[in-house]
Fold this protein.
Amino acid sequence: MPGAVYVDLDTELSAAPGAGGRHPLPDPERLQEVLRRAGVREGAQVVAYDAGDGSVAARVWWLLRWAGFAEVAVLDGGFAAWEAAGLPVSAEVPEALTGDAAGDVVVRPGQMPVLDADEAAALASEGVLLDARAAPRYRGETEPVDPKAGHIPGALNAPATGHVGADGRWLGPQELAARFAGLGVSGGVAVGAYCGSGVTASSVVLALEVAGITSAEKPAALYAGSWSNWCALDREVATGG
C-alpha cells in the first residue's frame, strides 16, 4: 500500500529466539525505536495488515496495545482485499524516519495480560485456554516446528484460520461469538490463548474482542511464549482430541 512501512516479525516485533520461545516479546526500548522510525505518533491511528489471514497483523495490533497504544486496527482481508478492490499499490519503500520527522510514541509495556507457563496451565484448568494451531498439531499427529507434539493439558483447539471466511475476510461479530460459544467461551469465563510461538494466538485475542466476549478494558490473556516455550520447559503434553 502506498506509504505503508514494513516491520519484520522476526527481527523487529520479537526478541531473539531462545528459552522464552521462538518469537519472544521484544525489548520495550527496541520496540519503541522501531515504532518511532515507522512514524507512529501518540494519538494517531495505526492500521496493520499482512499478506495472509491477518494473524501477523494481529501481532502488531496486540504489541501496540501491550505497549499502551490504543488507536490500532487490523485491515480486514489484508493486502489481498486491498488489491481486489482495485486500490493503488506501490513498490516504493519509505525511508526510516529520524529526528523531528520520527514518531513520538512512548512504549509503556504491560498493558495487555500475558501468561507464563504456570499461569497458562492454571487457566487451562480453571478457565478456558484456546490453542490457535491447526487441529493435527493440537492433537499431536504432527509437529513440523517444535520438539514435542501435542497440546497443553486442558486446552481447547480454536484454529486461527477459523476466524476467516472463504473470501479471506474475518467473520462477523455474531459468527465469531457463536464459534467461541461452541467452545464454552462466554463473557463470564477467564480466557487466554496460545499457539506455536505467540503470533497467531494474537488473532484469537483480537477475535474474542471483535466477538464482544472480551473488551479493550478486559482483554483475553496471551501466553506469549506459547508452545515453543512450553516445550523448552519440558512441561507435560497432552495428545488427541
